[in-house]
Amino acid sequence: MSKFNAIALTDTLAALGEQLSSPDEQLTELINNELYYNAWFTPDNVAKAVTSIGAMLNTADITTWLSKYNLDNRGNKKVGLILAGNIPLVGFHDVLCVLATGNHALIKSSSQDSRMIKYVLNLLVELDNSFASQFSFIERLENFDAVIATGSNNTSRYFEYYFGKVPNIIRKNRNSIAVLSGNETAEQLHELGHDIFDYYGLGCRNVSKVLVPEGYNFNFFFESIQDYEQIINHHKYNNNYDYNKSIYLVNRDDHFDNGFLLLKKDDRFTSPLAVLFYGNYTDVQSVQDLINTESEKIQCVVSAIPLQVTNQVVGFGESQQPQLWDYADGIDTMNFLSNL
């Protein structure tokens, strides 16, 4: 098998990044048509996902990323990938890791997100035909050496039963949280709106809960995110908003309502769509203790406070802009795959 050529791989991936950063007419048409297959995949959201991957695939970051691993001994394992479909191209990074380590990806894509991933991989093959033999799209997963499966807490039990005898990464439900000090600027809170509303809040990196100091006044928060009010015009989002609002009103649950987002105090991390949970804290140490205790439920933390926690901490507006080395659930996928 040929020796790994990091420069060639970097150049190919960077060229793909350039194409995704500036979609041509054909890719733009595909982006605009996703809405007909999945109502959540609006042109704006699909374009955001595509260009975010494009920005991720830049020469400097690819070089830094690949340099962390010994990829000379190219793998030749068949890696089953069960991809999620909650946001556009959410499974691309797993596929990329399998290809970068020289393994073969057996891709079981979600019915909610099957077209974009095929198109992007075809673009990669056009840039370097050697990738054509490195992946297959399948309906049924069999004859595999390892598995990376992403699903819910319920499906994870199914995955663990069927795939427990081979090396695996099995991902469960996670959500992201924000920790506010009360000293945030209007601009910071506006950026937090991206963490909450991008992809309609459907991603594991979307903020579903905020932790705020005792006595926090949410008026400034609501003023700062008012620009996102158009989200209520999406019929599926609006249906979720109306449903949850009616439940809270019937049950007489205390909550805030700004016309497009419901805010409710709740100990849980996973909020329903169109709802943001919140909790109070008395000091930063108690916040850190909570996050570290519940770390397996949290994907990342959005805050300007320098927190000492095991989960990744990102700035406002950055939760849905992961870099190549920001691995889901904090598990180094490249390390896993390069040591099979």
UniProtKB/TrEMBL annotation:
Keyword NADP: yes
Alphabetized UniProt keyword annotations: NADP
SUPFAM superfamilies: ALDH-like
GO molecular function terms noted in the UniProt entry: acyl-CoA dehydrogenase activity
GO terms, biological process: bioluminescence
Pfam families referenced in this protein's UniProt entry, alphabetically: LuxC
Keyword NADP among record annotations: yes
Domain of life: Bacteria
Name of the protein in its database record: Acyl-CoA reductase (LuxC)
Species the sequence originates in: Mucilaginibacter mallensis
